[in-house]
Specification:
Elements (H helix, E strand, L loop, with lengths): L5 H11 L2 H8 L6 H8 L5 E2 L14 E3 L2 E3 L3 E3 L12 H12 L4 E2 L7 H7 L5 E4 L5 H13 L4 E5 L9 H6 L11 H8 L2 H9 L19 H11 L6 H10 L3 E7 L2 H9 L4 E4 L13 H12 L4 E5 L5 H9 L4 E4 L1 H32 L13 E3 L1
Parallel strand pairs: 4-11, 5-6, 6-7, 7-8, 8-9, 9-10, 10-11
Antiparallel strand pairs: 1-12, 2-3
Length: about 375
């Protein structure tokens, strides 16, 4: 099957993955209104078409958080990517490096940070949740620092897990025992390529970074119970002050959509924020990321780096986000589907498609440098 865009990777991933895995990565919270808005609201961003400008030398390179990047794109933290392809996080980081962009490794990755670092030629960024066990957080920060990471993305929009109906119906919620779930066994057996690549050859099937804190096992069954006990809904800026005492690198807050929260983040000295609603997986009915971006941009007024996460499906969307004030974007589902469909090669192919789409969109809007876009590039949003 010839894949030419995001939709092709999603279709291929749906065919290859067992249903319970696909529903986990594909779904959102409640009735998934925000999940759909994240995509649909990009269509309301109208770009100004400019002509007779020299666009023979398009520059897509930029620099974010002290890192040179070939594209204004990073791979967003996506949990349990090792369930999409064998040791999935290691495949993804190699594809990102080959493209010249960073990956933000999820703390909920199957491959621990040490394994991903061993597979990479240079350090990557890492995402973190604040959990009740501050001793574990402190130890995890030391592991992240040892891996050479200098930029930490703290996810702040998951005080508690959102309600995800798809997971409750047929996804990762509930029992993981194949003896108790004959439907799941049939699902796996119906996808033999995945069963061989991930089920047999992709072991261990654990949440690698969390294993030291989970002495009774770090598989999906134990992981869900552990998350319920350890995610901390009481986190405030006082806890971020504690984090600052143990982390001397750059700190980015991921999950900001409110202008007041953006101003507070700047006042507190954060290095950046990610305008994000967790891919529509938390509060359904909230603003899409792209709709929230302009007000956040105006509130911060250049005081910090702004990235956007959620709904980016093409290089054209990358340009739309940057026209509305983002310094760069994070890709989540796009690389997860590409990884599931074709492994490392799929992620590389997806990024090449994004690059071509971005370059064409820039040329047709008269833009030659992604770092110096026209201030009136977006007509409306």
């Amino acid at each position: 099957m010839k894949i030419v865009n995001y939709a092709g990777f999603r279709d291929a991933a749906q065919k290859r993955l067992p249903r319970f895995i696909f529903e986990y990565v594909d779904g959102g919270s409640y009735d998934e209104h925000t999940l759909r808005r994240n995509v649909d609201d990009f269509k309301s961003v109208i770009l100004r078409q400019r002509v007779l400008r020299d666009v023979s030398n398009i520059n897509t390179a930029t620099r974010l958080f002290g890192r040179d990047m070939a594209l204004p794109i990073a791979l967003s933290p996506v949990g349990i990517a090792g369930f999409y392809r064998r040791r999935g996080e290691t495949q993804a980081v190699r594809a990102a490096e080959a493209t010249g962009i960073p990956m933000v490794l999820s703390i909920m990755s199957c491959c621990p940070v040490e394994e991903v670092r061993a597979a990479s030629a240079s350090p990557f960024w890492v995402q973190l949740y604040m959990i009740r066990d501050r001793g574990f957080v402190k130890d995890m920060l030391a592991r992240i620092e040892k891996a050479g990471t200098d930029t930490l993305f703290l996810t702040v929009d998951l005080a508690i897990n959102g309600i995800r109906y798809r997971d409750r119906i047929g996804g990762l919620a509930g029992s993981q025992s194949l003896l108790q779930r004959p439907d799941r066994l049939l699902d796996i057996l119906s996808h033999p390529a995945w069963a061989w690549d991930v089920g047999l050859m992709g072991r261990p099937h654990t949440i690698g970074n969390m294993a030291p804190a989970m002495p009774n096992g770090a598989g999906l069954k134990q992981f869900q119970a552990w998350v319920a006990r350890n995610f901390d809904p009481s986190v405030t800026y006082k806890d971020i002050a504690w984090l600052r005492q143990h982390w001397k690198g750059k700190l980015v807050l991921k999950g900001i959509t409110d202008p007041g929260d953006a101003v507070r983040a700047a006042d507190e000295g954060m290095d950046g924020i990610v305008v994000s609603n967790h891919g529509g997986r938390q509060l359904d009915g909230s603003l899409s990321s792209i709709a929230a971006l302009p007000a956040v941009r105006d509130a911060v007024k250049g005081r910090m780096t702004i990235m956007l996460d959620g709904g980016v499906r093409s290089g054209l969307d990358v340009l739309r986000a940057m026209a509305l004030g983002a310094d760069g974007v994070l890709l989540g589902r796009a690389w997860a589907y590409a990884l599931a469909a074709r492994g490392q090669a799929g992620v590389s192919q997806m990024l090449a498609i994004m690059k071509e789409e971005l370059e064409v969109a820039m040329a047709l809007t008269g833009q030659s440098d992604v770092r110096a876009l026209d201030s009136d590039l977006a007509i409306s949003s």
